[in-house]
Amino acid sequence: MTHEQAAEVELPDFDTLADRLVEEGAFTVSPSELHGLLAGQVAAGARFDPDSLLQRVQELFDIEPLRGPALRNSVMQLYLATLQQFEAPDFSFELLLPDDDQLLPIRAEALGVWCGGFLSGFGLQERKGAGGLSVEGQETLRDLAQIVQISTEADADSEEDEGDLMEVQEYVRMAALLVFSECNEPDAQAAPDVDAPAPVLH
């Protein structure tokens, strides 16, 4: 399924997905971690049908079979939106993170969790072909591994802190697009420019 063949699907709402995970007893699963993991798998070349998607999520997070249709639908929506955004020609890929009105340390932690999920998902997916990531792609994964440890002061809320987080968030977004382009479009002429060093929060 490509973005041309299907109606546009939006990412599920962060808080709604969080509530549905709790309702299913998946108290330790963050929407950001779940999205990062699915994004990492898709970036590495994975594609799922509904049954295999739900089975993968249940296995990776060690949760009981998803009973409620609401969460099953949200997981499928999350996957389809992720795939569509990766394939979109305008680099419209988004990260599923808490809303901007949440405290900055909470958002920074969620970004680190997203990166951890992405790296886990990418590492779990067996990629086809002999070619690996380029040097730039490998450096990008190392940068994401550093961002997993991102943190801010508990009282950080200045415009500078906000700007730093937005800069790191945009880097992560473009890094994911670069990895996807290398693993899924080997003949692509253009890839997102993520040559700049990963920014670090003060």
From TrEMBL:
Parts of the chain that traverse the membrane: none
GO terms for cellular component: cytosol
Pfam families in alphabetical order: UPF0149
InterPro entries (UniProt xref): YgfB-like, YgfB-like_sf
Family: Belongs to the UPF0149 family.
Protein name, UniProt field: UPF0149 family protein
Species assigned in the record: Marinobacterium marinum
